[in-house]
Amino acid sequence: MYMTLIGTVLIAAIIGSLSEKTGFTHNGYLQSIIICIGGAFLFFFAQMMLARMFGIGFWSAGMNAIVSSIGALIVVPTHWRK
After folding, report:
1. Of the candidates 63, 79, 61, which has an alpha carbon nearest to the alpha carbon of residue 19?
2. What digits encode the pLDDT tens for the residues 17-70?
3. Closest CA to 73 of 23, 11, 30, 19
4. d(C-alpha 47, C-alpha 18), whole Å
5. C-alpha–C-alpha distance, residues 18 and 4, integer Å
6. Per-position DSSP letters for 20-66, written without gaps between them
7. Four-residue CA torsion sign, 59, 61, 62, 67
8. CA distance 5 to 2
9. Is the CB of residue 12 less than 8 Å from the CB of residue 39?
10. Who has greater pLDDT, 24 or 78?
């Protein structure tokens, strides 16, 4: 579980920095990384809770991190997106 959590944080940080580098967001590197890590944490723990309570699982841990990071960047308002 801990290695999966560390991997989720690393993937989320990479997605956040790539989103700034490619111009997908204009928040700043640190802000985008924080948004991605927050979304990945939220999705990771929600998935863990649902899997233990109801036996419902989503995708692999890496896919969870990628989808939740991109989702957090879309949901959280960006700074004057063009």
Report:
1. 79
2. 998 899 888 888 898 888 888 888 888 888 888 877 887 766 677 787 888 888
3. 19
4. 25
5. 21
6. HHHTS--S-HHHHHHHHHHHHHHHHHHHHHHHHHH----S-HHHHHH
7. positive
8. 5
9. yes
10. 24
